[in-house]
Amino acid sequence: ITTDAQASGTSLAKVSSAESSPGSHALEDKGTATWSLTAWVSEVQAFEARAVRAQARASHPKATPVTEAEAAPVLKQRLLPEKVQVPEKEKSEVLITRPFWSNKAEYLLAQMGYTMRPASLWSFCYLWLHSGGGIFLIIYIFLLFLIGIPLLFLEMAAGQRMRQGNIGVWKVISPWIGGVGYTSFMVCFINGLFLNVVTAWILFYLSQSFQYPVPWEKCPLLENASGFDPECARTTPTLYFWYRMTLKASDSIEDDGPPVFSLCLPLFLSVCLLGVFMLNGLKWTGKVMCVLVSSSGLIMLCFVVRSIMLEGAVFGLHYMTIVKISAIYNVNVWRGAGNQVLCSLGLGFGSIISIASHIQSSSSCLNDAVIVALANLISMMLVTPFIFSVLGFWATQLTHRCNEKNTETLLNLVNMGILPPEAQPPQNLIGNPTSIFTSWFNSLSNPIKKEVLSHVPECNLEEQFLKIKESTNFAFLAFVEAMSFIPGSVFWSFLFFLMLLNLEMSTMIGIMDSIITSLQDIFISVQKYTKLFTVVVLMIMFLCGLFFTRPSGSYYIRLLTDYWTILPIIIVIIFENLAVKWAREASSFFADMANLWGHPMYSIIRWLWSYLIPVVLLALSVTTVFQLSLKNITYLAWDSSTVSHPPQTPDLHREWGARFFNPLLV
């Protein structure tokens, strides 16, 4: 009875505090609480009176029975004060209900949208190209089912069960592992800062794509219109527009400067878009995610159909069919595939946990993990032929232009008498310049070939195709240049950047939900002012993001993505597995999962979480550290003196760069 009385007292205190909160249903709560208290008091009074009478008869058979009226004051004196004596702090608390997704479809689309980040899609294609072709795909699918889906299920189940953000979940599971949540939060916050800047780049290009021709298709004229800008004339229009017009890049990372004004407005606009998508609550955010994800998939299908009809697409698709059996014995291929699984699913950032905390617990959590992982795999398989086709088209067009330029140079040299008449190329290259020029060049004698190659470079289609780099800049260089070659370049450029914007925004919504939910679980008082708190967090991210809009900001982004992000993510995931298996409270987590499913958890999943996955992740971390220690810390920089972008070593200074980016020296 005492326990019930205390429980009722707590309920009454919560109802009283809810009555004082604005916008709550005060009358309904008050009426319900009053009725429950009256009924409870009546029942307990009757029971207490019967118990007192029975005790009196047992100890004093002839004693006068105790009436209910005499027993009631005793009951009130002993029980009622416990029920209403509530600390002032608890009285002032406002009971906050955690918002939920409107339906299961919105929840799954939110998880899918978060995992479909453009950088991961490109990285998958890059690894396919340079890590054994079809063998890489087989290794990736194997690791996806071995570690990817179990880890995704782990984070989804933790979020659904604990109803907490990234920091709170691991504190509940095990207090000693709470630092994992803070580490994951910091990684998520820093990634959110420069991903906002990437979104600003996309918005800037999107605004420029309404011009005809697009500004990165031709070099700009000088002010007196006497000719093209000489700095642009010594490079390509795409490179010039990216480094000089968009980034206003410095020559090295040491050259500081104020934020680029032309990027500050797009950055502010990207933050405002996030606010519009998130301020109206989770139900509105769910509908936004439905639009973003579905429109991105539709645009991607349009690009796949259009890209396979481009010239040179067959040459690019040929590289998809290459299978290098020897790659299966290469440790770097396995390391790249494992890291790609973790990055493509967005594990370790806490966003999956936060998104899952807004859905009712269900027995289909494992099915949800499988659906999200397979959707992510299908999206990468869908975008791969599109990227390879566009790469083939891009390499073909550049090779055509290279041969046309060589033809023009050779004609001038022959007319000037520097080269013999035998070195005069065919003047009509209409149709297929590469094929015509190559046929003519192969018909020359060896001495003439050597003399020709001493004056002009050799234009090789395969070498041009393999020049691509593993970088987020790829979307702004190779693809932007390829879009300018397609007929109707304005339309296709706009569609391409719209697709990138949708993908980036869906990823940023997941990251922002993780940041805001984690902070609200720590500072409970801000839950009463969710909209205001969201605006404050967005403004802080805008101000911090200005650091990456400086002339050297893109170099910092490159260094962070290449040398920093993956290692803390692996460490975070390792400790997540250790917490679930070896923490004292982990047994209750497994028991809750068993009650949710209606049967014990699959032993293979517990075995994977407890033994195999930690070993695989430890091997990944060791090989990643070893690989990073062998690489020189470099980045591509714009060199205005020679108008090129050679690799630079960040001497910044070199001691600082080594400490911050080289894991062996941390």
TrEMBL record:
Localization in the cell: Membrane
Location of region: Disordered: 1-29
Membrane topology listed for this record: Multi-pass membrane protein
Residues bound to Na(+): 113, 344, 376, 503
Entry keyword set: Membrane, Metal-binding, Sodium, Transmembrane, Transmembrane helix, Transport
Regions crossing the membrane: 135-158, 179-206, 260-282, 289-309, 315-334, 341-359, 371-395, 474-501, 507-525, 532-551, 563-583, 604-626
Main location: membrane
MF GO annotations: metal ion binding
Classification via InterPro entries: Na/ntran_symport (IPR000175), SNS_sf (IPR037272)
Polar residues bias spans: 1-23
GO CC aspect terms: membrane
Highest rank taxon of the organism: Eukaryota
Identification of the protein by name: Solute carrier family 6 member 16
Gene designation per UniProt: SLC6A16
